[in-house]
């Protein structure tokens, strides 16, 4: 828990805006509804989508089923030894266990190198250990802003086992929002202002909708790479 707790400023007020789904959403940054390159992006207005343009990215099917299994095989033994934590009311996350991993087998290391190449600026110093966060089906991550002091410009995460929805809300205007559909086996990347001027959260199962469609949340494991602050 230390890693997340130490590196974040937790927002005490849990921002919920399910009613916004009843309004028409702007679900592509381009005018073309058929623009399949942004099917994972949805927001409350065109302006908010423009504000995060280039700072949020989801790459569906970034890893294959075999690669997902390889990652799971490496992280499951360590996670099995831990229990999900539900009881800390003030924590940023609810229903989770976590671990860090520095050494990986060859296949997983090659997957992580692909993540590093696409996600981080060349030469950017990276945090050595990779963070593995296991959310129970009932688990969720509350809105929080990553701390400039502890986190670099970029976070990149692989989503294993389940689809989920990540919501970003500008700190200054909590009526606007951007949703990212994190499909199973996708990679998400969040950079710069989207990381530091927006809260981000992983929605709990009963609030997990994307563009009005239910996105069932099962157990989800994320494998997260970060760079260091400069
Ligand atoms: O599980 C995830 O992918 C999100 C993790 C997160 O919110 C964070 O590390 O700041």
Automatic annotation (TrEMBL):
One of its GO terms (cellular component) is mitochondrial matrix. Its cofactor is Fe(2+). Gene3D superfamilies: Alpha-ketoglutarate-dependent dioxygenase AlkB-like. GO terms for biological process: DNA damage response; fatty acid metabolic process. This is Uncharacterized protein. It comes from Danionella cerebrum.
